[in-house]
Amino acid sequence: MAVTIRDILNDKGAEVATLGSTAVVGEVAALLRSKGIGAIVVVDDADDVVGLVSERDVVHALAEQGDQVLLTPVVEVMSRDTPTCTGAARVDDVAALMTRGRHRHVPVVEDDRLVGIVSVGDVVRSRMDALTETADQLRAYVSRGY
């Protein structure tokens, strides 16, 4: 059976950091640091996903604009064309999406509601766990002398 994004969320938890579209970059930086995370989902007043802002977005904005960017609205530095997935999506499919688009984080949406986020690290960890389980099963099979 294929591993799904829902399996990852069940293991790691579905907590996802969000900020409203009126937040400023300084708030983003503070939340990224306090939560020890790499990205925040930006939502509108109806809690619909409007974008994603990452550590990389903040660093690029700081390099280009200096520290005055900390007072800039997040909507000016966030990525707007953020792909999403559902909990039923296969991990392999989301890994391919991340690789093709060079996305490090993908919000998880169910019935138009944000329910989580997965990172490239979550996807890699899940795939490694599956490979380890397969290797263990093969070792057990071989050691039984079949």
Plain-language structure description:
The protein has 146 residues and is of the alpha+beta class. The protein has a single domain (5-143), classed as Roll (CBS-domain), CATH 3.10.580. It has five helices and five strands, in the order H-E-H-E-E-H-H-E-E-H. The protein has helices at 5-12, 25-35, 55-65, 91-101, 120-143, and strands at 18-20, 39-43, 49-54, 105-110, 113-119. The protein has a three-stranded mixed β-sheet. A two-stranded antiparallel ribbon has the order 4-5. The longest helix is centred in the C-terminal third of the chain and has 24 residues, at 120-143. It is elongated and about 70 Å long. The mean pLDDT is 92.
Measured as a percent range, the helix fraction is: 40-55%
- The domain tally reads 1
- Terminal CA distance reads 24 Å
Beta strands, count:
5
Helix run count? 5
CATH topology: CBS-domain
Low-confidence stretches: none
Order of helices and strands: HEHEEHHEEH
Structural class, judged by helices and strands? Answer: alpha+beta
CATH class value: Alpha Beta
Please tell me the overall pLDDT: 92
Name given to the CATH architecture = Roll
User: Quick one: CATH superfamily?
Assistant: CBS-domain
